[in-house]
Structures are given as structure tokens and as C-alpha cells.
Amino acid sequence: MSGIDDFNLHFPGESDIFEEKKPVKSANVVSTKTILSFLFPDGLKTPGKFEDVSSQTTAVFRTEMEIFDGMKVEYTRTASQYLQIQHALSMGSSMEPASYSFNSAFAKEKTLLHARWGDNGILFARFRHQFDKLILNAQAQAGSPNPKVLTLLVVEGEYKGSDSNVSMSFNRQNQMVTLSYLQSITPKLSLGSELTKHSQGTALAFGGLWNTPKWAFSAQVVPASLYLQVAYLRKAMQTKTCMVNLSTQFVLQPGEQGLDTVAQIGAEMRNLKGSVRTVIDSSARIYSVFEEKLDPNLSLLLSTFIDYPSSTYKIGLGLNFQS
What we know:
The chain is mostly beta strands. It has one domain (52-322): Porin, CATH 2.40.160. Helices cover 4% and strands 59% of the residues. The protein is built from two helices and 19 strands. It has a 19-stranded mixed beta barrel. A hairpin with a 3-residue loop joins strand 11 and strand 12. The longest helix is centred in the N-terminal third of the chain and has 8 residues, at 32-39. The chain is globular and about 55 Å long. It starts with 13 loop residues before the first helix and ends with a strand.
């Protein structure tokens, strides 16, 4: 947080004109910057974007989005120092038909270009460039039924201050404008808000993150829609060769018959040989993804999903090659 300079403003009067001026001693004034430097010797850091307030505490719960069934094979090749390409093939899934996609990514210092093309004719592209403290992001998607018409266009500008972050985005698809601000209050605490304007109205959200070396807690609330999300992360083990995290999450959100509540617990373990991620929610559903590195360039994936109330089971097997 930038300091506030103190100015001694003095307006001359009649006494100043006829009396001899005497030297004025400067007052011992302590500025805000001095106080912050004394309280936090290491200073305040950039907190990141508001939308990422809960990204650390809820990282393991993204396992639900990575569940697949059938067979999946991915081949990733590093074409040059800055260019990487990937071929992905999936088949035998009960959730979606067999598909193929081609991905390419170009990353150089402050610029990132990423494109994905699928056999369904949909092309997705992403651009990111950093101008010192200003970051420009853009996403676009085109495809069926009319390849010449953009079905998605999102433009975002982000400013990363020394202890704050301001971002503004525009989504052309639903005519939505979002403005967010996140401020580091202390080295451990960050607070912010987000204003969203779309065709259905305006929504104001508040959020915060308390992060320590041993645990982290995040919360987000949207008063207008009665949405509440709180999450807690326990960093059970953090070493150079192994990481173990335990997470819990509670979400209160509007539903078809009133307010719906969802509670989840998750565990994650990563080491040099692979990773294990498991999530259990209040509806008695279990999501698990196992990854085993058979070779530095070859990984085996096993995805499992169990829904006890409906007696639904899904299993997926994947292979990742790199060269």
C-alpha cells in the first residue's frame, strides 16, 4: 500500500509581512508507509485476482471436473524452446462420443498463445501478454454451426500493483461486464469485492483469503442471491518431495426448491512418483483420480466415480506420453 506524504501548508498573513521570519523546525511525523514497514518488514505482496481467492483452498475439488470414463490417450511434444503441441484421443466413454483434439501453445517470456481444435469443428484460442504491471487476456471460440461467427469472446485487463490487484473483463456472449478489486491487508490476509453487470441485473460479491504456512481459509458471499462459499485447507505436509493437503468446503446457493447446501471433503497427495486426489460430497458421491509416473515421459491415469444413491459407477483409464 503506497504511503501518504504529509504536507505542511502555510498561508502568509499580516504578521508574516511585518515580522521577521524565523526558521521553523520540522515536526516528527510518522507516515503510513513507515508504519507499514515497521509492522510488516517483508512488505505486502500482490494478492492475485479476486476470482482466484478460493483457488488454493478448493484446488482438490476440481477433481470432479477431471473425471472421465473409457480410454484417453494424450501425446505431448516439445517442438522448440517456446512451442509445445499435443494430440488427445478419447473413446469408449458413456458420457460423450469418441473425439480427437489438437492443442498448441507458444510461451515466450511475457506472451502466451494457446489454441485448441476439435474434430467437432470448434476452435478455441487464448492470448495473454504482460506489459510490466498491466496484463491483457483474450479468449475466443468459433465453430459449428457457422465457423465465421464467434460463439465466445472474452476480453480482460488486469493491473497488478505491489499490494493490490484490479481487473476488468467483458463477455460478449452474455453482455457481462465484471470489475474486481483485491487488496492485501496483511501478509496473510487479503480482502476484496467484485461487481458484475449483465442483462439480468447487477450483483456485488465480497471475498477474502487468510493464508498461512500451515493452513488457509477463504470465503465468498453474494448477498443479493444468498450465495455463500467457505473453504478450509490444511497443509498437512509440505516438503520438496511430498505434499499432502486436506480440504473441506461448504456451499450455500439458490436452487429450484429454495436454497441448496453442498458439503465436501477432499484429500490430495503428490510426490515424485505420482499423485492421488479424492473428493467425497454430502450426496454420497466419490471422485478419485490416480496418477502414476511409469517413466519420466510416461504417466498412467485411473479415474473412478461412485454415486451410491443411484448405484452409478464409472471408470476411466488414460495414458500420457511426452517427448
